[in-house]
Amino acid sequence: MEFRKTIRVSAEDYYSFNKYHLRAKVFLNPILFLILIPLACYLFFDLPKGGFPNVALTIALPAAVVLCSLLAFLSLRSLKRAAAKRYNENEMLQAEVVLWAGETGIGEQSAFADSHTPWPDVARAGETKNGIYLYISGKKAFIIPKRLLTAAEDEALRALVKKHLHKKRNQLRRK
C-alpha cells in the first residue's frame, strides 16, 4: 500500500498547522490565567479578611474572563499574522510538493528538496478538521490538507500511519 499526492499548501493550511502546533500556548495559557487571577485575589485580599472570596468572585473572576478572552483573541490574531508573514516569505512553503508514504517511510519531492524519513524516525501524527500533520521532528511536519484528499487517499494514509506508528504517537482520529 502506498500514498502519493501532489499538493500545494495554502496560507490558511499553514495557519491551521501553526494553530494546532501551538495550541497549548494559544489556549492553555489563557485558561491558566483564568484560574490564577481569582486565586491570587483570594489569597491576597479575601483570605486575610476572614476567608470568604468576595473580591475573587465579584471582581477578579469577571475581570479574568474578559482578560483571558482578550488574551486568546490577541494570541490567535498574532499567530495568524506571523504565519502569513512566514508563508509569504518562504518559497518552499508555497511550492508544489509530491508527498508520499509507503512501507519504508514518508517523504517529499519538490523543486527545493527530496527527502525520505523512515517510519521509526517519524515523531508523531496529528490531525485537525483541516489537515493531517506528520511530524518528522518536534517542530517540522508534513502538512497534508484534507480538502485535497480523496476518500481512498485518506484511508490509505491512515492505514499506513496506523500500521507504522505506535498508538501513543498516532493522534489521528478514527474513521
Describe the structure.
The protein is an alpha+beta fold and 175 residues long. It has 2 domains: 3-10 and 91-164, Pleckstrin-homology domain (PH domain)/Phosphotyrosine-binding domain (PTB) (PH-domain like, Roll); 14-89. The chain has 5 helices and 7 strands, in the order βααααββββββα. It has helices at 11-21, 23-46, 54-89, 91-94, 151-164; strands at 3-8, 96-101, 105-109, 114-118, 124-127, 131-135, 141-145. It has a 4-stranded antiparallel β-sheet. A 3-stranded antiparallel β-sheet has the order 5-6-7, covered by helices on one side. Strand 3 (105-109) and strand 4 (114-118) form a beta hairpin. Helix 1 crosses helix 3 and helix 2 (23-46) runs antiparallel to helix 3 (54-89). The longest helix has 36 residues, at 54-89.
Secondary structure blueprint with pairings:
Layout: E1 3-8, H1 11-21, H2 23-46, H3 54-89, H4 91-94, E2 96-101, E3 105-109, E4 114-118, E5 124-127, E6 131-135, E7 141-145, H5 151-164
Antiparallel strand pairs: 1-2, 2-3, 3-4, 5-6, 6-7
In short:
With 175 residues, the protein is an alpha+beta fold. It is built from five helices and seven strands. 21% of the residues are buried.
